[in-house]
Each structure stands twice: as structure tokens, then as C-alpha cells.
Design goal:
The radius of gyration is 20 Å and the shape is globular. It is built from 12 helices and 10 strands. The protein is an alpha/beta fold.
């Protein structure tokens, strides 16, 4: 199959031989995801999954940020993705073909979910992952279903509670990637082209699918176990979005202000005091 490049708004797709590439290309907005962008990415994944000539799917990006999660300002919150807002992550995670992430920038929030939904992850020294959303009253409920079984409960909890980044060398030590931390994108792509892709192509697609099924079984309880987990996490997500904290955060973001949680809980405490006493405070 000849190489081709087709721009689709903020998502680029290309095919070279047996390797199909999906590139997040919304650089001015730190590759944050809008509903339209998610739909484009999912359509490309469906198309490449059906194409018998495509044996490997690559997810990568332009610019210094791999993905900063959903674009809340553009109406791209997870709730805007319909009944199953985790569908784009599942589309990667359950792909019948190996999905390789080539990442040379930072990952935040939902972008970390995309990163962990890929089967193989190559990273440069500029990569880090973080979960800043807890500071605005939104914790990463849905993507935890992809991250925690791979990263482990302690490290996941520490990163999600603190919002502090896990940097490239730490990611290698934690087993987030099984390959060296590459000095730059050119070295990473050279390794993928010369070593990784040929290694993958030496095995038939049926073997790739079998490996993905058995690891899904052992780490996630199989497809059914994963589905049940995501259903439960969906309930957690819906409960989170119904909290007073989430409503306050959305209001503050609409005003282009950061939530002030000291002020929020101070005000909440006063509201619980009887009015005749509150007036004397």
C-alpha cells in the first residue's frame, strides 16, 4: 500500500506499508481533545483495524505535548462523549492490532489514559505524565481503569493525589516503557522503524490478538472483567460530576478563574452554621 497523508482537522492519518499512523495535531491547544477530534481518531482506528494490510497502528503527536486531556473550554469534557465517554480509550486498548505510542512530549489527564491504552510505548527524555485535574475537583475516574493495573495502586494513588509528574527515567524504572528513554524523536522513530516494527511483523496478527487476550485476562480479568470495571468506574465518574466541588470548579473555569478550595470549604463550613450564629462569625 502506498504512503498517503490525509488531514482531518486536528487529526492526521497516514499509511506506510503495514504501519498506519494517527497523529494528534492540535498543537495550539496542547493537543487537548474535542468531541470532533475524538470521533476522527475513533474512525481512523476502526478503518485501520478493518484493513488487512495494516498490521501495526501508531499513535503519536506534533508539538511539545502528546495530549493534555479533554478540552473543557471547548465543551470537550468527558460527559460530551455520550453514554460511554471511555470509548476512545477502549478503542485503543481493545484494538485487534498492536498499538504503539511514539511520545516525545508531556501527557496530562486524559492524555495519560491514551498513553496507557497503547500496547507498546516509546518515549523520549522530554516525556512526563501527570494528573493536574484533581486541583479542579475532577479526579481521573475513568482512565484509572487502564492505568492502575499497569502502574500499580501505590504509584497511581500518589500521582493522582499530588498531581506531581512522573518523569521519563522514573517511567522506565516503573515499567511504563520497556525500552530506553530516547534522546529525541528522531532516535525513537529510527528504533521503531529499524527494530520494533520488523520484530512485530515477524509474528502473525492472530498471535498478536492471542497475546492481547491472555494479558487482558491475567491483568484485567478478561474482556468481561474489564467491561464490569469500566461500568463501575462510570458510576464513580457520574457521582464525581454531581458533587458541589465539580459544580464550583466548572463555574470558576467559566469565569477563567482557578478554584480556591480553602475559600470553598470555608464558605461551605459557614453555610452549615445556623444563621443567627453565622452572623456573629
Amino acid at each position: 500500500m502506498s504512503a498517503a497523508v490525509a488531514p482531518q482537522d486536528d487529526v492526521l492519518t497516514s499509511v506506510s506499508g503495514a504501519v498506519a499512523t494517527i497523529t494528534l495535531n492540535r498543537v495550539a491547544h496542547r493537543n487537548s481533545l474535542t468531541p470532533a477530534m475524538v470521533n476522527q481518531m475513533m474512525e481512523a482506528l476502526d478503518r485501520f483495524s478493518r484493513d488487512p494490510e495494516v498490521r501495526i497502528i501508531v499513535l503519536t503527536h506534533t508539538g511539545p505535548v502528546f495530549c493534555s486531556g479533554m478540552d473543557l473550554k471547548a465543551g470537550g469534557g468527558a460527559a460530551a462523549l455520550g453514554a460511554k465517554p471511555y470509548a476512545p480509550f477502549d478503542k485503543l486498548f481493545l484494538s485487534p492490532k498492536p498499538v504503539v505510542a511514539l511520545v516525545h512530549g508531556t501527557c496530562h489527564g486524559g492524555g495519560v489514559g491514551l498513553f496507557f491504552a497503547c500496547d507498546i510505548r516509546l518515549i523520549s527524555s522530554k516525556v512526563s505524565i501527570s494528573f493536574p485535574e484533581a486541583s479542579i475537583g475532577i479526579y481521573p475516574a475513568l482512565i484509572s481503569g487502564y492505568i492502575t493495573p499497569q502502574l500499580g495502586p501505590y504509584l497511581t494513588r500518589s500521582l493522582m493525589l499530588s498531581g506531581l509528574p512522573l518523569r521519563a527515567e522514573q517511567m522506565l524504572s516503573a515499567g511504563v516503557t520497556s525500552h530506553a528513554v530516547f534522546s529525541g524523536v528522531d532516535d525513537m522513530r529510527a528504533f521503531a522503524t529499524a527494530t520494533l516494527f520488523p520484530a512485530l511483523l515477524r509474528s502473525p496478527t492472530v498471535a498478536h490478538q492471542g497475546v492481547k487476550r491472555i494479558t487482558l485476562l491475567m491483568a484485567y480479568g478478561g474482556a468481561q472483567g474489564h467491561s464490569e470495571t469500566m461500568t463501575e468506574l462510570m458510576g464513580e465518574f457520574q457521582g464525581m460530576m454531581a458533587t458541589k466541588e465539580a459544580a464550583y470548579a466548572r463555574k470558576q473555569l467559566g469565569l477563567k478563574k482557578s478554584p480556591d478550595w480553602v475559600e470553598f470549604y470555608a464558605a461551605a463550613g459557614k453555610q452549615e452554621v445556623p444563621s443567627n450564629v453565622r452572623s456573629k462569625l
